[in-house]
Amino acid sequence: MRFIDALKLHLNFIQNRDLASFSSTISEDSITLIMMNGVIIDNRDKFIEFHREWFNDRDWNLSYNIIKVDETENMAYALLDVNYEDIDMEGRPVYMKYYLNLIFKKYGDNWLLEFDQNTSFKY
Hints:
This protein is of the alpha+beta class. Helices cover 25% and strands 45% of the residues. The chain has helices at 3-15, 19-23, 44-56, and strands at 32-34, 40-41, 61-71, 75-87, 93-107, 110-120.
């Protein structure tokens, strides 16, 4: 599979809150998530549990633009500009724009996520 196709599948699984399919795109060997608040998750089970809780929240919506993709034979990354909408605990709308940096490693014919960093920016 081409990296761009694997990336789009991964992102589609997020938008559709499909945890089983999403989990199949995550490395078994190594995964690191750096959230916007600086918290690091570097354990696959905790990474998937974090996403299970997020996917169970039905209030959010996410759209993105791919800014840059670079691919070598065994590694690839994508930088995305993400627009995120949610509703906070008091029912008020929340809007965020952030950069999402995803790094994948090739295992056989599959591209699996190894690094996920979210960085907010002001606009």
